[in-house]
Write a structure and sequence with these properties.
Layout: H1 5-12, E1 15-19, H2 27-33, E2 37-40, H3 47-63, E3 67-71, H4 74-79, E4 84-87, H5 94-101, E5 106-111, H6 114-122, E6 127-130, H7 146-156, E7 161-164, H8 169-177, E8 183-185, H9 187-190, H10 195-215
Parallel strand pairs: 1-2, 1-8, 2-3, 3-4, 4-5, 5-6, 6-7, 7-8
Helix pairs in contact: 2-10, 8-10
Length: 216
């Protein structure tokens, strides 16, 4: 697992944006709005296209003090100088991804059940996503996990984790009420008319619920 700056930045992160190369124009305004992590997830792009887009996004994220990850492919993460890689349950095993990127880069994973949350806690990952809370077209065929899994993770997590699946300002606040401090977002920022405002709204929703929880 990573330590030092990466570990601190993961724990401080709140809003995590995932998108494909074709939507890269949303990244700069989203970063201005407060996105802390960006993941390039593009299953249709060629390796060269992923590396080319990844290098541009990596530089952009670095300018804003944000982290940049590549989905699924640790080799491409290294090729474009990314801060790490995210592997899903159906992708490369976590240990294999770690062996490729090394201990100095981030490795994250996805979880869709209580058993997978427990496994992520025990594995050599630096963070994990929990969900999808709601069914989402970005993960067709993946059933919704609902709020119970968010509550489960909140009660057991020792690592940074993110609620994922149908997150927007309204559902992010509900996720925070259920115990999440961080969210992964796709459509709510990528498809927004104003990605910067959308990112600010998401952060504000998380912060508002955190203040409410602290006051209880």
């Amino acid at each position: 697992m990573v330590s030092g700056s990466y570990a601190e930045r993961l724990r401080a992160a709140r809003v995590y944006l995932v998108l494909e190369a074709a939507a890269a124009d949303a990244v700069a305004p989203a970063l201005r709005g407060g996105v802390d992590l960006v993941q390039l997830r593009d299953k249709r792009a060629s390796d060269d296209e992923v590396v080319r887009a990844g290098r541009e996004l990596r530089a952009l994220c670095a300018d804003h003090g944000a982290l940049f990850l590549v989905n699924d492919r640790p080799d491409l993460a290294l090729a474009c100088g990314a801060d790490g890689v995210h592997v899903g349950q159906d992708d490369m095993p976590v240990d294999q991804a770690r062996a490729i990127v090394g201990r100095e880069r981030i490795v994250g994973t996805s979880t869709h059940s209580a058993d997978q949350v427990d496994a992520a806690e025990a594995a050599g990952v630096d963070y994990y996503a929990v969900g999808p809370v709601f069914e989402t077209p970005t993960k067709q065929g993946r059933p919704a996990t609902g709020w119970d899994l968010i509550a489960y993770a909140a009660g057991r997590a020792t690592k940074p984790w993110f609620a994922i699946g149908g997150m927007d300002a309204e559902t992010a606040r509900a996720a925070a009420a259920a115990g999440a401090r961080r969210v992964v977002v796709v459509r709510a920022i990528r498809d927004a008319g104003d990605p910067e405002a959308a990112a600010r709204e998401l952060r504000a929703a998380l912060d508002a619920e955190e203040r409410v929880g602290a006051a209880r």
